[in-house]
Amino acid sequence: MNVATPISSKNTATASAVRATVCPHDCPSACALEVDLTAEGRVGRVRGANANSYTAGVICAKVARYAERLYHPDRLLTPKRRKGAKGEGVWQEISWEAALDEIANAFVKAEAAHGSEAIWPYFYAGTMGQVQRDSIERLRHAKRYSGFFGSICTNMAWTGYVLGTGALRGPDPREMAKSDCIVIWGTNPVATQVNVMTHAVKARKERGAKIVVVDIYDSPTMKQADIKVILKPGTDAALACAIMHIAFRDGYADRAYMDTFADDPAGLEAHLKTRTPEWASAITGLPVEEIETFARLVGTTKKTFFRLGYGFTRQRNGTMSMHAALSIATVLGSWQYEGGGAFHNNGEIFRLDKRELMGTGYLDPSIRMLDQSQIGRVLTGDPVALRQGGPVTALLIQNTNPMNIAPEQRLVRQGFARSDLFVAVHEQFMTETADMADIVLPATMFVEHDDLYRAGGQNHILLGPKLVEPPETVRTNLFVIEELAKRLGVAHYPGFGLSEREHIDRMLLPNGLPGYDQLSVDKWIDCQPAFEDAHYLNGFGYPDGKFRFRPDWSNGPSPNKTPESIGPLGPHAEFPVFPDQVDVIELADAEHPFRLATSPARNFLNSTFAETKTSREKEGRPEVMIHPDDAQALGIVDGAVVRIGNRRGALRIHAKIMPGARRGVLIAEGLWPNKAHLDGEGINVLTGADPVAPYGGAAVHDNRVWLTKDEA
User: Fold this and answer.
1) Residue limits of the 4Fe-4S Mo/W bis-MGD-type domain (predicted)?
2) Residues 186 and 320 in one domain
């Protein structure tokens, strides 16, 4: 049976305990958790840790009911070998030894036939634990397998922010509670990062702060707003430019601050002369008065905190949109004040030494880097995606589900169906990627192994200790990497042969941080920099200390910059000198009159939790939200089946008629499994994998489509 038992001998059948850990999932919060271990040795209630000043006792409902996932009857519990055709679902249970031997043998054969780059270890953020997520990189570098360019999530947002600030850090996100105005831009934290709302609502209750939400539809977060700003997808930069135009026009701009801390405020002001509210209204769909009201509020409120999300950057102009929205805080001088400034991610503050964990000492820069987002193109032999190299004939997949989450799904499916492609998947459930594998291995969940976490959306390093024993036949990611290293002849390389706790110590101790033993007592480390550093009052991250209104779009800094062998990507040459609206997006046209965004759902997290009964029941079914006027024009009624498509493909889906977005905008919430859709194909059939300027990324919210009634 799948019964987890507590590690500590103190947690016997006659006593229960509360243990500290951290949520492992792909979310900026990395919430500090308290987990009840029942007297029977099972995980019970999961709740937020009150003692953690960011989590503040609040977590999302899907994680609060984690026991439903941990003890799910469909959880993978034994290694399996495919017996029938790919995707047929016929499996044979095998031993761990046999499974690992088969994977290693397949990799050896692939390397012998096509060279080491024929193997592509493929992973992502199904766990944010440093050890269990990133150890696969150590095997990659040791064996000279194809590199992994992790582009799908963060590139546009991080690049746009860092091109302005020169660093990936910002004001303490807990300062939202001390703000007089919180602007939540391009993110839906009620559904995706609930702690943002904890601190924003506290400011409203205690200080009378206003909450402004900027998004493309009336999301759950929008319903909490004092001011709603609903614009067309991909037009955020136009709105930002108009706000800055008004700031210069009406005297809200802090010229003294900019003279000290910005590169070319005079040039920006001249550039923005024609970026009027009327100009922005025609682009965004916002009434002029709404733009004026928004600009007046932030312009007259010194303590304005711009909380900038990922969602609005998942457009082909997303990097520029992030930079433009970020620039408002510099024009207004908001950085000077506690509760003011602009925050996106704190990724650079944590000082973890990951060289040994990831094996960077034996990384060879001549090995090709393949783009995560373009897995469909890679597996179907696109020479550009393959960097003009040989085919990929073997995959090891951990912590991700590309058969569901990757763009250009028809190419992805075609690639996975290749008879000459060997696929090993290490997973917790039989995902749609696992369905296409040759070998499937059962993986532990976060309470069943030790790991270390860092919270990009806040300021803590957190320890996630092993709380319960996993089922007897389930193994950690680290175990799989270590065992393959032995079979592939690289187990003697530095970094191999260490336990999770040893890796954690080696990440922390070299930089003077407390190790595993101390963290097991302290639970987390607050890494927030001093106020002056977090607010860039000692200068921004460039050598001259100045914010860049004029970023170098082709050569500027980024935390995940494309390697020199690839160089800048996408139409970066079309980006202007200063913040501006750049229509490199998929604009609607006569053939495709609608713009589609694939926004997150409240009860799913990417493809995770889509397997749990409660999450599926709360979400209902795959639907596309349509404006009532658009539905009426097409003769579509609520609940009807419609067809939606573009040059990449088409699918059928139920219509949900509701106001709350601009006309011509469609919203499909939630990354439902492909098989949950009417024809077995999911929403990513419609999304593209062409790289976003300047350093790549997937513009999954930027899709022009047609929409018709289903006449079948």
Assistant:
1) 16-74
2) yes
